[in-house]
Sequence to fold (877 residues):
Amino acid sequence: MKITSHKRRKTKKKFFSPLKKTFLVFLLLGFPIFFIYLHEIKTYIWKMAENRGHFWIRKVTLSSQLKQFPKLLKRMKFNNISRVYIDIKFEHLKKLHAKRQQALSEGILTQKEDDFVPAKMRFGERQVKCKLRLKGDWVDHLQGKKWSFRIHIKNGDQLFGLRRFSVHHPQTRVYQGELLFHETLRMFGVLALKYFFVDVTINGDSIGIMAVEEHFSKELLERNGRKEGVIIRFDESLFWKSLKYKDAEKLAFDSYLNADIDAFQSTKLQKSKRLTREYATAVGLLEGFREGKISSSEVFDAKLLGRYLAVCKFFGADHAVRWHNQRFYFNSLTMKLEPIGFDANIHFDLDIHARNSIRLMREPIVREMLKDPNVYNVFQATLNKLINDAKSGTLTAHLKKIEKPSLQIMQKEFIFLESFPEDCVKKMAQQVFTTNVQLLPIHIRAGTIENKNTGSLHIKNTVPYEVEILQIYWINKSGKTLKLETSEKLELPLVLSKTKLRTQPKSQIINYKALPPKSGYWLEIKSKIKGPSKVTTTRVKKTFPVLFQNPMPTDRLSNQLAKHSFLSVSGSNTINVKSGKWQVKDSIIIPKGYKLFISGDTTLQFSENGSMVVFGTTIFKGTAQNPIIFEGIAKSKRAGTWQGIATYNSETRCEWSHVIVNNTTGMNWPQWKLTGGVTFYKSDVDLSHCVFDGNRGEDALNIIHSNFKLEQIQIKNTIYDAFDGDFTTGQIENCLFQEIGSSGSGDGVDVSGSKIQVSNSKFIGVKDKAISVGEKSFLQAREVVIENCGIAAASKDNSILEINDSKIENVSTALMAYIKKAEYGPTKLIAKKVRITNSKKITQVQHGSYLEIDGEQVSAENLNVKKLYENAKKQDQ
Fold:
């Protein structure tokens, strides 16, 4: 069968069907109307988003909107965004839903320890276990699908270099405003949080772009160039609990004068003697400031506090300086508190900015801080700089550069989100001003300060009513009670006078006989407001004594000259030590503004608790024939020990030559301690032909935040580390590190956050690591000899170690590359022309890290770092 084609009959098409006509009319009329009213549409969307003035509303025209439309489409196509996936089991998600519903009904979210639920998070190929809870005080954190979460990564793992962080709707921190606030603080060296934006999916449901905000932890401190330490705050829990009540009752707790002082990760602090000691000092200092016994500059780092307050003032960040939002890091090196930026909630709206700026200066704690001229002068100078930089455009150009990548991410979802308005910032710079009873959650605050056999109970009335103390007794977990034995007869009920609103409560002190520390008992108090009211039970907390001055040792020059006959003054600012042998029964303290000069043929012998603290430049010039010797006073023909030398904040370079330092133990003042037998802090220094022998502390030589050169230096016979460099740059040439770490744990050169060169040096008999490079450091070693050591060279935690033209002999492990702190990440070690003999293990490299020998990469292995450090941890305990 032949099949042929059949041509269809051509029919005349109508150009416009009725449907097409309708669409065309709609397009011709609707399209212009849409763009004419786009400004109003945008305004409506902004109001729905409750941006509160963040977006800058410009005058718009049809042509400008037509030009903007392609840009809006481009924003929606942006795809260079980090994506995070959170998986929560149904039963745990149900618990979060119930907590959210409770908060929405009460208008506020109150937190409890058991609010956390387990979850898993994925980013790229990585999956980590975590626990999370709802986060935020107000219910704006719980709207729609974009709930705010506080997240703790488990098992020592990390995500984005963070172990603890928050995730929230960008709107709750006014979009990019919080990022710009933190980066401005960072410009001035103030502690600032890591803040960035990611796309989040929960159980397969995308909730869109969310902000990630770092929480308060050691990673925050290390990222900002600080050592691990204590972060404290005013306890705001009672303030938030009282907000649901009447005005008078809520005001009772709206004051930093009537709040406990506590710390982040307090359970961790209790496990460390050092951190517990620092916690006590930090609380004592802040309590001393609160009670008006110590000035701002004695408690806080005046420069950093002044700069922080100036940035807050400039941006109108009154929310950040509210007493319950303030966070402080205790720097154990300076013995001062440093502010940490948090929850600024800044606005680029002139009316809001003006109102917030005035309110900021009325905040009671801010007024007290600025009463100190040392703080106020820095505040004013920083404010002037911000104003000038804003007017010149320098500041806005810097902020634009910072803002750009984050703005692109947010505009993927918030397409009408604009860059911050430059003209508004300039105008901001121009207008900156220097400008019921039964329902109360508690009635008293109580704390104990105990010595060996005695204690003092401090009770404060926290409310504006008389309070009756009905009972005070010891109690244990089983509920068994014991009578409190007081030094004087105690008549109950004891009536405490009322405390006026927003004033500091007075302490009622009761002295008593203390129980043994491990008895398992604690004190409880039953109290009530005088009259018909309910009885409440308060568990007494351990507290710390108020400090009346900063623990850092200070003294007048006249007192030092009277105590030490060998000291004299020449010129306007040089203090000399007379040659000869001198016994120092007390410490030598050189105040700020002076240089200390010591020449050869001088021996200073210190008592066991003696030390030398210099707040200026040290020039010690001995000779080979007549060296300078620092040592302890001998006891029963045995060499004596002493604390050591600390040089702080030298404005000119220190110089030591032909100096011998024997048998130091490290600074051990009542509330100020340093790990180094000799310490240089923010003091550049050249050391040549010096010997550090017999150190009994953690580090024989510790250099921090300084540039240095070590030449012909010997460090030997230490119990722990020889040289420790923290956040430094410098050179080590022709040095000897011998018999280091007799305790079984001690490194030759141990650096963190540093950039160091080591050359022509020997490491002999180092028990742990001859060269240890960590925490994002770079060290280049050449022509070094390492003999009879534990580990020859180790690179860890995102560091780079290069070792060339060197010899390694008789060691347990020659070369190691691994991660000790997960937040830093993988590390690298490159060895070239290194001769290794008699090494039990040539290399050990953990998966993820990189080790190369003469151009050949070494295979990685499953290295158990935790087991590696078990012996060291046992030693630390």
